[in-house]
Amino acid sequence: MTADLSTTATTLLAHAPATTAPGTGDAAGSLVAADVPSVVQSIDWLAIAPPTLTALAALAVLVADLFLPAHRKRLLGYATLTALAAALAFLIPLRSGERSTFCVTTGAQACSYTADHFTVVIQALVLGGAFLTVLLSLDETRKLPAGEYWFLLLASASGAALLPASRDLATLVVALEVASLPAFALVGIKRGDRRSSEAALKFFLSSVVATAVMLLGVSFVYAATGTLHLTEIADRLDDVSPVLDTLAKTGVALTLVGFAFKTAAAPFHFWVPDTYVGAPLPIAAYLSVVGKAVGFSGLILVTVIAFPSYADVWGPALAVLAALTMTAGNVAALRQNATRSRSAVRLLAWSSVAQAGYLLVPIAAAAYSSDEQIGSTVAYALMYAVVNLGAFAVAALVARTHPGNRLSDYRGLYATRPLAALALGFFLLCLAGLPPGIIGLFAKVTVFSAAVDAGLGWLAVVMAVNVVIALYYYLQWTAILFRAPDGAPETAGPDTGSPAPAPPRRFRAPTPLTTAIVLTSAAGILLSGVPQAVLRFAAVSLF
């Protein structure tokens, strides 16, 4: 956590005594001590409990792994579930959204950690996403180093939970890297798998370059303003010296590049499909939801809180990025070959890129209207998190009997797993924005309204065209689920005396995986029945 050191030093020097006459040192010293404000920052332990508990649980799991025999490693997964559930429980007393800590004790009122409504909602999304990822992973870790896996997942989740509460650039960058660095290792954790290693390398190199560019931008912003606190940056950018204006604009632009990578915005999205395909399927699900939440949280904080004075710089840039991202994602998803290995995961990867474009729209709109537009991004992100994790959960179920995870492998899923097929069909319709996925429809309308209200009519048209394009591949995948399985007759024919085809092979789904599908399905149905539960965030200020 940072403080403005120059302000503190100036205050202390201003209060320091010049000379002390003999015999008056004690009295003068006590007077000075009474006048000098304390530079010791108080800590609100309840406010920082969710990320702190997650980080401590990561260390505990790593140490416990040293002492547990191989046949009891599964306990580490359940310990991880318990820790994430406890971290979620600590969000309940924070729902008032009025807590801050690590605040500057001298000069301006600025804090490095704030648990406002935006923080609580995003932390619930992040920790809930990590919880569901653990459910998807409990059976996967039999073939992976369990201790390292759970440690890395908890470490990444702790950074992701810290980021939305960060209110200075130093804490923001640290949280971003704490969330990202373990993710590199998780992508490449399948030892001896060439595809996994290649995916981790691409992810790492792309992220390192983006982080370097972002750090250069942060240094330019600090040079132009002399502070790292977001609220202070906003105040000082209002009257930045003309000599430093170009430096400040360059810093703003470079800082946005780093977060554009984390959100998988075009043209910084090329790492997504190969990374998702090479990573273990639960980690691909984690990156598609929690990884995006990290990127969008940081992007919202720096644009809306730190850089409102330069809305004329980042507003048009994000609008163009939104249009490019949704178009690139949907066009690439259309081109997926149903018989290609892992085509189902690739389609979900490109779909997540397109969804990132929709999520960017309200942020761009905030530059032209008000900060309340950010609520539309949060509402859409909550819907997307639930249904996308559900889609990955069904994909993990299918992968148990079809490791290739091709789109063609889903043909006739309704015959073998009717409930799983119905769940996946529901998730896909939510992503498409069609009934009965009411929450997907309303979330898209909310984002569309944000663009129209901000006067971005051209962006609303681009979004409408892309929604229509996406209908094709979402509905095509949904139709595959209910077709007759390969080798079975499409329609009943005359009795030829030939033996009846063998019934589709059934398999027993693991309990944790089934639980993940049930939870996401129930959440999706609940949100479709009561959409205002998340859409209300689009009508209020979260800061």
Terminal residue distance: 20 Å
Residue share in helices?
55-70%
Provide the residue-averaged pLDDT. Answer: 86
Strand content: under 5%
Strand order of the largest sheet: 1-2
Radius of gyration from the CA trace? 26 Å
The description of the largest β-sheet is: 2 strands, antiparallel
SSE sequence, one letter per element: HHHHEEHHHHHHHHHHHHHHHHH
Membrane topology: Multi-pass membrane protein
Subunit structure: NDH-1 is composed of 14 different subunits. Subunits NuoA, H, J, K, L, M, N constitute the membrane sector of the complex.
Protein name: NADH-quinone oxidoreductase subunit N
Family: Belongs to the complex I subunit 2 family.
Q: Could you provide a short overview of the structure?
A:
With 543 residues, the chain is mainly alpha-helical. It is built from 21 helices and two strands.
Characterization of the model:
- The chain is mainly alpha-helical.
- 67% of the residues lie in helices and 2% in strands.
- Strands 1-2 form a two-stranded antiparallel ribbon.
- A hairpin with a 7-residue loop joins strand 1 and strand 2.
- Helix 11 runs antiparallel to helix 12, helix 13 packs parallel to helix 19 and helix 17 crosses helix 20.
- The longest helix is centred in the middle third of the chain and has 32 residues.
- It is globular, with a radius of gyration of 26 Å.
